[in-house]
Amino acid sequence: MCSLSFARSLGLALIPLATCCIVANVLLFFPDGKAIYVQEEHVTTFVWYFMGIGGGGLVMLIPACVFLGMRKCVDSCGTDSCAMCGSVIAALVGLAGSGYCFLISAVALLKGPYCYTTMGWRSPFETDGGKYLFDQERWSDCIYPKHIVEWNVTLLSILLGLSTLEFLICFLQFISGLVNAVCRPCCYKQEYSLNA
């Protein structure tokens, strides 16, 4: 029962994290708070990978719902081994989603924003391996959208942080579910053999 309440608390924690990932990804489509850049396809291609909307957002709702509904599963099937096995699979889905979000966000952060420069629309920091992050004087290479570098760095850093938390939560439930699914039946068999 303790493992069920632990899983439920992890499921509750995933919902706001997934919501924040979706919001952060959506905001990346509107640099400077304007829709014109997405309409004219002047946003970085990485936002179209939907790392926050899909990976860190909608996909994370699967493990969240499974973790929250484990008690109902136990009530219907009479054993929590079945529920724990389901939570292990759901945690693997969550690990994949959060890993995807983290990976794409990290690559997008390293490549830098897509912006208008003196040489036209391009990604001016694409080849410098993320060095631009520590050289704020170079951020003025992006003429507009205004503050696009700060916008991207902030939102992508938020996505990195949120996906890391999601990964840790899913990993905790993966370990907890695995231990409970494997060890509990063994413990029950030992108790039965001792009582017999």
Observed structural traits:
single chain; 196 residues; mainly alpha; two-stranded antiparallel ribbon; 7 helices; 2 strands; 69% helix; elongated; disordered C terminus
Structural features, described:
It is found in: Membrane. Its main location: membrane. By secondary structure, the protein is mainly α. It has one domain (2-195). Helix content is 69%, strand content 3%. It contains 7 helices and 2 strands. It has helices at residues 2-28, 36-39, 51-58, 61-68, 70-77, 80-111, 148-195, and strands at 115-117, 120-122. Strands 1-2 form a two-stranded antiparallel ribbon. Helix 3 (51-58) runs antiparallel to helix 6 (80-111) and helix 5 (70-77) packs antiparallel against helix 6. The longest helix is centred in the last third of the chain and has 48 residues, at 148-195. The protein starts with a helix and ends with a helix.
Radius of gyration: 22 Å
Distance between the termini: 26 Å
Runs in which pLDDT lies below 50 for 5 or more consecutive residues are 186-196
Shape: elongated
- Give me the side-by-side strand order of the main sheet: 1-2
Helix residue percentage: 55-70%
**Tally of strands:** 2
Concise summary:
This protein has 196 residues and is mainly α.
Question: How are the elements arranged and paired?
Answer:
Elements: H1 2-28, H2 36-39, H3 51-58, H4 61-68, H5 70-77, H6 80-111, E1 115-117, E2 120-122, H7 148-195
Helix pairs in contact: 1-3, 1-4, 1-7, 3-6, 4-6, 5-6, 6-7
